[in-house]
Amino acid sequence: MIKHHNYALGLTWMFILFVIPLPLIQTLAVGLPADYADEFQAIYFGAIAYSWMLVAIYLSTRPKWLDRLIGLPDMYVIHGILSIAAIYLIYLHQSETESMGWIKTTGNWAYWLLLGILAYSLIFMAGWLTSRVPFIGIIKKWLEPLFKHEYSIWIHRLTLVATVLVFIHVILINYVVAITPFMIWFYAYSGFVLVAYVWAKVTNTKGSFRGTLTKNIEIADNIRELTIRPNDDAKVTLLPGDYVFMSFPTIKGLRELHPFSLVNSPTDSKNIVLAIRGDGDFTRSLDGVPDGTQVKFTGGYGRYDTFLSNQPQDTNIVILAGGIGVVPLLSVVDAHPNRNIRMFYTAHREADLIYGDKFKNWQNREHFQIAQQVGRFGISEVLRSLPNDWQRNTLFLIGGPSKMMRHWKRELRRHGVMAGQIYSEEFDW
């Protein structure tokens, strides 16, 4: 029977919002002196904000266990929303408490630094927001030539400085430091995130996989296919539908890791094949990277295969793909030759319908069908092609631009498809 609900994301939100701050609030409630009763609520706001800041930093390390549970796109959404909420609570904390000296100074520095980072990040690093608010998206496109992605990453890392300032701010408050149970939790949370962050950086620096770019060709207008041969000692664990974070450490401007989806099934070849559209400063520079260049990558990430593995193996699969968003779904189709798959593939132009040779080969399979065209399919066209009992035995995988994926989710839900039957991964980060 199909699992119609995925509770992991909801439970993750509940744990972050309520469970993690609870020890800090509880120990403060017991230990705060009565002289500060008028400021209790504001002090609680500060403690909650700090716990959420630590969670946001931990999520920025891209923990793989959590990616396989809820997916990296949702982790980034949580990261962004938590950061906004934490800054709002810091504002309330400042407005309703009184302090002086270095306690006030460190608090103010942290607040204004976080506010500046937030304003910058909402434009350049919050794709989940810019894809939904066109005005912000226009500003981002206008300013992108001035603020390259590598600069954005370093600016965003100033969040660590702000967090250190908040840490100092807290340990300067005598009546808070006197609450031993609170400080135990405070140091434990801070220490755990510090170790996790440092470990992630060490892993990315020394533990990332290495490989060689063996082929870099243009397969369509503004789309390149890169083939990477991992080094013999690189024990990479990839699943169909996964993506990897890749960089070129020897080339200036291409040294920061960026995510790209697999074209091929990792179960059939040791090579990693990526198809990349030139949308940003990093991707537009790929045409100048020669064969033989050293590659650094880490992965895999993604939940397409996990989603399918958690469902009955005899269910039908319907794939709704648009443009370059078809790429991760190609490796899914490649890896499941015996599954009943019906695919609907669209693009804005005929030239953007890539990998036609793959589809021709797959049509020799007994259980694979594809319909492709320029322009979007209607929901009625999709549903008419499905068996009468599709609501009980069909899963829907969506890949494409964010607007397209949100459109299909709304349409499918409106026609009776349960949320647990649908999976997609947005790459607007």
From TrEMBL:
Instruction: Tell me the keywords, alphabetical order.
Output: 2Fe-2S, FAD, Flavoprotein, Iron, Iron-sulfur, Membrane, Metal-binding, Oxidoreductase, Transmembrane, Transmembrane helix
What name is this protein filed under? Answer: Oxidoreductase NAD-binding domain protein
Show the stretches that span the lipid bilayer.
Answer: 7-30, 42-60, 72-91, 111-130, 151-176, 182-200
Going by the entry's taxonomy, the superkingdom of the source organism is recorded as Bacteria
Q: Name its co-factor(s).
A: FAD
Q: Which GO terms describe its molecular function?
A: 2 iron, 2 sulfur cluster binding; flavin adenine dinucleotide binding; metal ion binding; oxidoreductase activity
Q: Where is the FAD-binding FR-type domain?
A: 206-307
The answer to whether keyword Disulfide bond applies is: no
Known SUPFAM superfamilies for this protein?
Answer: Ferredoxin reductase-like, C-terminal NADP-linked domain, Riboflavin synthase domain-like
Q: Does the keyword Ligase apply?
A: no
Instruction: Give the organism the record lists.
Output: Lentilactobacillus otakiensis DSM 19908 = JCM 15040
